[in-house]
Amino acid sequence: MELTNEKPYVIGLDMGGTNSVFGIVDQRGTIVAQTAIKTKGYPDVNDYVAAAVEALQPALDVVGGIEKVRGMGIGAPNGNYYNGTIEYAANLEWEGVVPIGELFEKALGVPARVTNDANAAAMGEMAYGAAKGMKNWIMITLGTGVGSGIVVDGKIVYGSDGFAGELGHFMVEPNGRSCGCGRRGCLETYCSATGVARTAREFLAKSAAPSPLRDLNPDAITSYDVFLAAEKGDALAMEIFEFTGEMLGRACANFATFNSPEAFVFFGGLCKAGHYIMDPIKRAYDANILNIYAGKAQLLVSSLKGSEAAVLGASALGWE
Amino acid sequence: MELTNEKPYVIGLDMGGTNSVFGIVDQRGTIVAQTAIKTKGYPDVNDYVAAAVEALQPALDVVGGIEKVRGMGIGAPNGNYYNGTIEYAANLEWEGVVPIGELFEKALGVPARVTNDANAAAMGEMAYGAAKGMKNWIMITLGTGVGSGIVVDGKIVYGSDGFAGELGHFMVEPNGRSCGCGRRGCLETYCSATGVARTAREFLAKSAAPSPLRDLNPDAITSYDVFLAAEKGDALAMEIFEFTGEMLGRACANFATFNSPEAFVFFGGLCKAGHYIMDPIKRAYDANILNIYAGKAQLLVSSLKGSEAAVLGASALGWE
Q1: Which residue from A123, B95, B242, B302 puts its CA 20 to 30 A from A52's CA?
Q2: What's the pLDDT score for residue A6?
Q3: Which residues of chain A are within 8 Å of residue B167 when distances are taken between CB atoms?
Q4: What is the Cα–Cα distance from B242 to B248, expressed in whole angstroms?
């Protein structure tokens, strides 16, 4: 009997700032059992791991216990593939360097691998989603921030320190919007969900055009509100997506010079805006791409369900 | 007897728009014989290959003939590693797609591999120069244009089509200077030798400051003239390098988000400007680097002689 048949499952953990979702995944990429705990509320990371292991028990019972599990993959903010650590994650309670892989290995008795959330999403997309079979491509995650996973020759680019692939912090506008990283003009200050809300406030302030967005408290406007307004035919909302897509399409045309990708795959809440965001991305990409790369890359939306992609992606690490 | 002892040499060809330099290289990276022909003047590429083979004979005789040669590596403008071709090179006489690898294979009877000139320089640097032993780093060539070779896990990034790594055409300034590629704001319009000359003309026009550069015909100013003026203590010339280095350092800080390099290695005529260019590059890099990458990458100047690096780099392909 093959090893993979004796241990036909892996655990995938999608750790977000708020929630941690665990999936037990089989070799075909089916999540056969799932559970979740809060990420917040455990000032001591050991308590977090203990709570996770406890919450995992019923899910593990479904597949016959931890004996049936080959390994665990963890996608976490600032997750470091080389070190198995979470390092200086601004959105988590634990400061400094957390050896999260080692802690789970000890608690569960199976090997654990760590990567960051965007790389996990890229692995999920490559194993089970829109990038199946692709060797050179770029994943762009559009959430609260903008993340990326860069793939060269079928492998995630980790670089010299495990932190490669931070295209959300590519500075696309000299002296542009201030970013949480302390610098200015980073892509994520424009093209994340919060970037779209920022653009909405800017556009509302500098124009007098009527818009249903004016009925909302400016500080509470979300990218989803902008989408709803666009759906009602609001010209200002469409302009906001046009601006966002133009920035992102131009940035991607630039990123193509790095690995001449066969595709960009976009993932995350902002993709729900559909053609309002994807059409301007495509127009700006085509208008700005260097001629040798023209027409070579597909611009795709993730084909995985948002809740599943990150868990599946993390789980893919568990097979390594 | 080992194969490598029977065939202990490779041929490296550095093909430029004007000259083609051939070196016979041993396993330690010593160029044991060298020859050159003009690249221009052969409208039919077959005539170019025939002239090259003829010119190579005396050099081959030095090592005991083509029987002693394991393979050939060719670094050429728009050289494509996957296809062994030169494709639509603006600075060469041959139009369209030229199967240069195949032509040399047939003419010499040894395997031939092709890459572009910047990737060849990167291979030379990694095999024999400043990037020896490095796995993740970026080569930036500062010549008439700006070229790049991106290295991930010890291998040149070729991407989906063999044309990856064109950072000279990264658009660093929205609506910036017009570029030969038909777009605007490409890095090479600022940071190549011709970009420096362009900056000189701009700075001379918009300021009235005295400068020895004013004694020259503006259209004939070269980056070397700017260097000579800086050496004489000319403030305007230093400002020109400051501007150039600032652009390049900021761009490199952005490029670090791709592969988190352990080094950038700069190569080409502009490096002769020494600290006038390297100091502002370093200052701008440090001022703009994302905190997780801070202090991680060395900013180095190529340690190979200009004339040798490209030949050595191309020759490294001959061992593959």
Answers
A1: A123
A2: 86
A3: 257-258
A4: 10
Strand B97-98 vs strand B146-152: parallel, antiparallel, or unpaired? unpaired
pLDDT at A43: 96
Question: Confidence band (pLDDT; 50, 70, 90) for B4?
Answer: low
Q: Which pLDDT score is estimated for A4?
A: 53
CA-based nearest distance A57→chain B, Å: 36
**Sequence letter at residue A82:** Y
Residue with tokens 């070779």: B149
Q: Mark out the alpha helices in chain A (DSSP H runs).
A: 3-6, 45-63, 100-108, 117-128, 188-191, 193-206, 223-231, 235-259, 275-288, 306-318
Instruction: Give chain A's domains with CATH numbers.
Output: 3-124+308-318 (3.30.420.40), 133-302 (3.30.420.40)
A262 in contact with B at a CB cutoff of 8 Å?
yes
Count CB neighbours of B64 within 10 A: 11
Question: Mind telling me how many Å the CA of B142 is from chain A's nearest CA?
Answer: 17
The CA–CA distances, whole Å, from A101 to A15, A113, B1, B130, B259 equal: 13, 6, 49, 35, 23
**DSSP for A274-318?**
THHHHHHHHHHHHHHS-GGGTTT-EEEE--S-HHHHHHHHHHHHH
What residue of B is the nearest CA neighbor of A254? B170
Collapsed DSSP state (helix, strand, coil) of residue B192 = coil
Beta bridge partners of B264: B138, B299
Bridge partners of residue A75, in order along the sequence: A14, A115
Half-sphere exposure of A184 (CA within 13 A, CB side): 7
Question: Which H or E run includes B46?
Answer: helix B45-63
Q: B84: pLDDT confidence band, cut at 50, 70 and 90?
A: very high
Q: Does the predicted TM-score (pTM) go above 0.90?
A: yes
User: Nearest residue on chain A to B287, judged by CA atoms?
Assistant: A183
Q: Give the pLDDT confidence of A137-169 residue by residue, as tens digits.
A: 999 999 989 999 999 999 999 999 999 999 999
